[in-house]
Amino acid sequence: MAVHAHPDDESSKGAATMARYAAEGVQVLVVTCTGGERGDILNPRLQGDPEVLRDMPGFRRREMAAAADALGISQQWLGFVDSGLPEGDPLPPLPPGCFALEPLEVATEALVRVVREFRPQVMTTYNENGGYPHPDHVMTHKVSVAAFDAAADPDAFPTAGPAWEVSKLYYDHGFSRSRIRALHEALVEAGRQSPYADWMDRWDRDDRAEKVTTRIECADYFDQRDRALLAHATQIDPDGFFFAVPRDIEKVAWPVEEFELAQSRVDVQTPEDDLFHGVRR
To answer: How far apart are CA 227 and CA 236, in angstroms?
Structure first.
């Protein structure tokens, strides 16, 4: 089970890993906490499109269905309302009724119900910073961690179904420093312009250690990941950032996706090359 904040997050974070496991016969479920209703139209080709402007929530639901089909996975909405990304100095208040303002126990119970029904062995989500500090991503982290604990406790939310113990909880590290460096150096070596020069300069001055514990070989599923990304047409520019690295270069320079093992109820040794290490019989 992969828990994400908005439709499109699942396609930019761990998508090839999900496609690989689904192809191997693993049941994979994406839980999307909000409908992405307040998302901007980031694809220049669709800005001002009357169909999108008329029904952004419906459009994003159709995009999500197409992305799930491309990855070969299932998807379920948790039913909360997008908080939007506040901008300005000082930041404006979050809109009433949005996901980030929901009481933690309300959102946790909703996710616990899905966990106890689906009964996953592994959960993935974001770290305490949300991957980046969008209020819905930070809230998704809080809810996922709380549900990981509460789903296993029969005294917690007793009307939400029989208790279920998830074996492992991971944080996605889709934009790790090591990945960006490898892609940057591969592009430079190939004589191509790298979009990551500014990133490298910033990270050269940031010596914080990475917490990656697990790398999943999934280059064979990059094409499915790309189809899922492009399915989110309002959010993904086909000529933009996600497609700046030629796939033949990416598959050689960085054929993996990375995760951090945050909690485990089974004995494991890191580094790992399988999210189900310690779980498989």
So the answer is: 11
Which stretches within 48-163 are classed as H helix?
50-54, 56-71, 104-118, 135-150
Domain ranges of the chain: 2-175+212-264
Alpha-carbon gap, residue 16 to 10, rounded angstroms: 10
Rg (CA), the chain: 19
Give the length of the chain: 281
Q: What average pLDDT is seen over the chain? A: 94
User: What is the per-residue pLDDT across 182-237, written as a single tens digit (0 to 9) for each?
Assistant: 999 999 999 998 988 888 777 665 545 579 999 999 999 999 999 999 999 999 99
Is the Cα torsion angle 218, 219, 224, 225 positive or negative in sign?
A: positive
| pTM of the predicted model as reported, rounded to 2 decimal places | 0.95
d(CA 34, CA 72): 21
User: Is it true that domain 2-175+212-264 has CATH number 3.30.300.20?
Assistant: no
